[in-house]
Design goal:
The structure is a homooctamer. Chain A is an alpha/beta fold. Chain A has two domains: 7-136, Rossmann fold; 141-168. In chain A, 51% of the residues lie in helices and 15% in strands. The first copy, chain A, contains six helices and five strands; from the N terminus they run βαβαβαβαβαα. Chain A has helices at 17-29, 45-55, 73-80, 97-104, 119-134, 138-167; strands at 7-11, 34-38, 62-68, 85-90, 113-114. Chain A has a five-stranded parallel β-sheet, sandwiched between helices. Chain A is globular and about 60 Å long. The N and C termini of chain A lie far apart (48 Å). Chains A and B meet through strand 5, helix 5 and helix 6 of A and strand 5, helix 5 and helix 6 of B. Chains A, B, C, D, E, F, G, H: Keywords: Isomerase, Lyase, Purine biosynthesis. Chains A, B, C, D, E, F, G, H: InterPro entries: PurE_ClassI (IPR033747), PurE_dom (IPR000031), PurE_prokaryotes (IPR024694).
Chain lengths: 168, 168, 168, 168, 168, 168, 168, 168
């Protein structure tokens, strides 16, 4: 990926990689260059703060942060960066309810754009990042329209398949 | 507001206006033109679908949707629009837990950028919309940097006030 | 099933089919013709709206909709149709609590008749549809009486089996 | 109301009357005759069982039952009657979460058509009852179409009012 | 078990038998005669009501009822019987939270003595029944004292075992 | 109350008195002598342990314990006494959900007979204690039968009042 | 307070002061010098990080941090400091459940010593700080013993008062 | 382990050993001597009370207590000891939500320093105990600084590994 990354994906632990890869796949689908890294609000606060402070300067447009439990990563990055930050709650011992609340319930002044718990959320984080970039990029906006059509077509195919199966 | 709106704020009921006005205030703070309306996924599905389909064409860049209970408004708009959609969960008989889950737990393919329940969330929806616009607007990006500094200064003032009160 | 369908079963994804088939089985038990399809409030909003608007005209009397997570399908259909809509919350990463709240907490004006989470709910959706049809169909009403007797008999058989096992 | 009641509204306590009156108002809006009574699954099991067994014979088409806490009323009536039973969860010390789960999580075989917690749910219980009756009553079905239009018009009026207020 | 049963164990479904057998084991440990049966508040309301009304007359002193989901069995029996009724919440799709709330949140006037969700609760239901009988039966009261000592001894043994394992 | 107390009511704080008085009222309604005291598992562990150990010896048959938050009082008493212990969860900052779970989720071996959160639960704790005493006291058992009839009569009166109000 | 502070109390907003003052009162009761300040993980990340990094060097032994909603303050400080950090969850729109989970569910490696939601938690945060200091300070340890006796005495007084009131 | 133990680890059941061993491992990492035992607030109240009362006298500085469900162990020990008590909520049928609330929601006067549910919490309990000891032990404080650096280094290694994997 020689292109300069527009989106940065970070996660609190490499055990979150399987989930956060879904965000990467979404971005690849839209042809958006991204970087991906492990950092931790709690275990590596300096690395995290430095990452957050420098992201905009490096040309990053959107940050996606995944974390579980007392999921502070997205919020801590949002505190240090002026970029839009998307938070992905990773499932936990409490099924991700703690991760969700820790990510979404941010105080007035510092938003985190929170998506669904787990893989669906990671997929959507990538799409949301693409939607944000598309607000000023006609080519991505067109791909987003195509994405919508693909979703609808997917439903039509499943519908047809179900009807075919029942017709037998 | 003669300028063409870049952000559309919609809400399920006029009883949500007091909360959703916080989003408007945030946008005004960044000098971003917006429109604000009442529409309902359930009571006015045609108006809602039409609004969602036409928003991008009218120059809207970001949609903010507030709803409570089985809060479908943001999700339904996200289904019809390629724009980034920010969902504000309005407090309910269950304190907004239902509103939050109905807004955030979207399936893979159709993200809703969910913020906190209630007024803090509405304030942050406006800021998040500004952050999204700022990804391609240097002037707004500079205002976002100033916003961050103002937040930090506000903490310093409260800190000073607390210390002064204790010094007496 | 050459008869004209009286009940339409729809679901947000073909992965919900195993659960929603329980609704179909219930209807078959009462000899009620039905149709079954995949549609999605989020991925296929046009198909969903069209389905909902046309259902009554095609002779459908009751709609059963199953969805999980931010489960908007039943509510969105209820917004577009005057028919009774039964919502089946599909289990999710949060065990279906999000699906349940997204389905049941509808605002005043647009009811969704919500049943239990998962297979028991799907079974009951079919029975509830039959009860609704039975309000104007003596033959189905008689079958409903027989259904009740069968339930009681089932308990008697389990009771007898337990006693027999213990008598050994 | 000299007409023979088609819907029976029952509630566990007269303290639920303020909420359950919303169901009555909905029915009155559709011109559907109803009866309303207090009975309790726990304090008056015989009255409740007798009511449930006789309702269909007396010409009742739909039963609406409201109860809070360990809300067994709708389920107990559904056990004794073949009619569709609509359950309204009444708010409680736990905000109605207990009432909702006790009403909706019925086992396979005995559905309760559950609506939202509190007044919105009671309003919707009346509308749902009307929808059920409308499946075999063209006049009520026409009123339901008018009801939908009125909902949409209500949103338009609120939208216009909001725009007028902002234009000043 | 030729002796006349003092305790009746009932459950909503034979799938609850594995859990409810723990109650039986507790009673056997205290040498208390019991009967065990399947009945259902929803599928077999007449059998359930008859069981509840006749239990005291047949010499039953305590009733133990296990059910899951919208767990009405214990409450419905408590409505019909003057005996102490112990409710065991059976785990469900929501881990038994619904079963617990449906069992414990009874209205003023009709208590259900609720124990923990699942096997621990079933075990304790048997012990609680024994404690109730022990209020008027010196022999059982003495066994209860021995039960307490056995519990403490069990802890001592585990403690010794842990220490021995670590000493190696 | 010169009679020797058969029931002991204890509570963690005198702020619980308003709620726990409902248990006392229930016992007075059955003419059962009781004692009432403040003790705390956390602030006064010795007093609590001594109370629990001596209760049976002083002729107490049943213990009722009310506490909120991390409500350990009932469990700690159950650990020290062989008597049946009834736990009343007192409402808290979390509406009593913490109090309920801390009271009911006891491990196998040491039951706490848990009733509903708050006043309804306290009322029922007194009735449950009476039911336990009634297992060996014909006079109390007869009063329990009368109590049931009074409950049903209360429902009839409310029903009559509602009908009278509507007839106007 | 001329003495060098051993405990630092910080809170996310001056609106938390009423609650966090309870921690100060506890420390005053033990004669432990403290400092108190407003800082925010999200609005003032630099001030917060600097505070956390310097606290140990300034002679602080324990940090108490109160925050609500997505309560990251305690965790963020724990990431930067080697001192024991006590987290006080401040009540929120969700009654503090979000604050509690955001504070307590820290990942392996970085503990936050979490206490109860709200004022009781703040009081206990001060006591816990005193217990920590008491592990190496005989004078404070002796005061802790006195504190325990005072708690027990307080229960005795409430008990006596209740008995006196009933004796009238 | 010939050294005198500074930390005591106790757990309610030997089935908690796998989780609580994580606390032991943390302490071993800091070279802090500890003892480990099984005791139960409910099954062995005398052993528990004796342990709690004698711990400080035996030179114990910090107590770590793990328990699940109605998790009273930490609170009961805190009631009897002046030492800091760390509570580890053990996962349960409700995923540890009951264990967490039973441990953390202690009343004003008797704190329990609560950590995360399960293994992460147990690991952190050991680290928190080390932090407490480090407030008066320079050698442990230095190891705590090293621990922080190791955490950050661990993140760097994972980051490098992820980048290396992607570079292929």
């Amino acid at each position: 990926m020689a292109e300069k990354a527009l989106v940065a994906i970070v996660m609190g632990s490499d055990s979150d990689l399987e989930i956060m890869n879904e965000a990467a796949k979404s971005l690849e689908g839209f042809g958006i260059a991204y970087e991906i890294d492990v950092t931790s609000a709690h275990r590596a606060p300096h690395k995290t703060a430095e990452f957050a402070r420098n992201a905009a300067g490096r040309g990053i447009k959107v940050i996606i942060a995944g974390a579980g439990g007392a999921a502070h990563l997205a919020g801590v990055i949002a505190a240090e960066s002026t970029l839009p930050v998307i938070g992905v709650p990773i499932p936990s011992v409490l099924n991700g309810l703690d991760s969700l609340l820790s990510t979404v319930q941010m105080p007035a002044g510092i938003p985190v754009a929170t998506v669904a718990i787990g893989k669906a959320g990671a997929t959507n984080a990538g799409i949301l990042a693409a939607q944000i970039i598309a607000t000023a990029d006609k080519a991505i906006a067109d791909k987003m329209t195509a994405h919508k059509e693909k979703l609808a077509k997917g439903v039509e195919e499943k519908s047809a398949k179900l009807k075919a199966a029942r017709a037998k």
